[in-house]
Amino acid sequence: MIVNCIAYRAGKSLGDISIDAISEVLKEPDTLVWLGVHEPDTTLLRKVQEEFSLHDLAIEDAQHAHQRPKLEAYGDSLFIVVETAQTQNDKVHFGETHLFVGRNFIITIRHGSSVSYASVRQKCETVPHRLAIGPGFALYSIIDFVVDNYQPVAESLQARFEELEQDMFEKSFDRENIAEMYRLKGELIKLRNAVMPINDISSQLIRFHENVVRKELRPYFRDIEDHVSRIIKMTDTIREMLTTAIQVNLALVTVGQNEVVKQLAGWGAILAIPTVVFSMYGMNFRFMPELGSHWGYPLVVGATATACTLLFRRLRRAGWL
Fold it and tell me: What is the CATH number of the domain that holds 275?
């Protein structure tokens, strides 16, 4: 469950430390402790709470996943929840990362589908002068990493939409295609709901909590806001196009049904001519002028066929057949 537990002094790594030694290391000046945990149990969380002196309510929230993205302050420490997303087998999987940030520590607790933050930690270690500023730069790096991972997810959803859009115009009505569009729309809404709160979290970190995010780090969080705005705009665009595509698909179905109705009506009109004529001759009247004529039968059949042919050509030119 413990992924890493590393101490830094002046931005330079002092190596791994045990969880029991955290409280003592935190007492040393210019020291930062970075603890990474993946789906911890209650026992480990209580130990983390003891070593870092964390609030009971924050630990209770961190123990259970399915928290809403938020930022809450508990004394001198912050509790932040962000949702993570990644694509696996053409399906978007969501997870959560809970962060505890204090004056000289940062804790990441991952739940569900989430990429390891080992690469983030290694990147921070390459710029020790920024890591020496405090946990704010590490916090920025993690949130920026989460936001950057939204981009390929949004692009994969866009690719799925373009494939569905192409199938919509190349194939006839497909119920599964409509169902897939609705599933895609649901995933877009979930992604937007995951991205949107990060704007508010970044805004709060910029304006408040200077003990964690110093002034020189504020431009970094404004950069996160720019990335978030771009992804939100992308998801909104896809969702609008998806809504339009669903309406167009239903309109195409209606047009197709109208074409069928027009063809049935056209053939019905043609068949009405012989139906009327032959039903007339089927009546049991004794005195009918045509019955005594030698050419009566071929004339009636010819006239009926001519009328049907003329009506067929007229309907064909009108586009009904």
Answer: 1.20.58
CATH of the domain at 54: 3.30.460.20
pLDDT tens digits for 147-194? 999 999 999 999 888 888 787 776 665 677 778 888 888 889 999 999
Contact 256, 169 (CB under 8 A): no
- Give all strands of the β-sheet with 77-88 in edge-to-edge order: 12-16, 2-9, 31-38, 105-112, 91-101, 77-88, 70-74
Residues 297 and 230 in one domain: no
pLDDT at res. 136: 92
Question: What is d(CA 110, CA 273) in angstroms, rounded to the nearest whole number?
Answer: 77
pLDDT at site 222: 92
Same domain, 49 and 113: yes
Lowest mean pLDDT among 124-128, 193-197, 211-215, 300-304: 300-304
Residue with tokens 């027009």: 262
Distance CA 143, CA 99 (A): 10
Q: Nearest-CA neighbor of 197 among 40, 70, 66?
A: 70
Structure tokens at 177: 């295609």
Alpha-helix residue ranges (DSSP H) falling in the chain: 22-25, 42-52, 56-63, 118-125, 128-131, 135-170, 175-207, 218-281, 296-317
d(CA 222, CA 238): 25
CA 210 to CA 219: how far, in whole Å? 13
Whether 82 and 140 map to the same domain: the answer is yes
Distance CA 5, CA 18 (A): 7
Looking at the fold, whether 168 and 188 belong to one and the same domain comes out as yes
pTM score: 0.78
Give yes or no: residues 130 and 259 share one domain: no
Looking at the structure, tell me whether residues 89 and 107 fall in a common domain: yes
Write phi, then psi, for 287 (nearest 5 degrees): -105, 100
pLDDT of residue 267: 83
Which domain range does residue 188 map to? 2-252
Domain count, the chain: 2
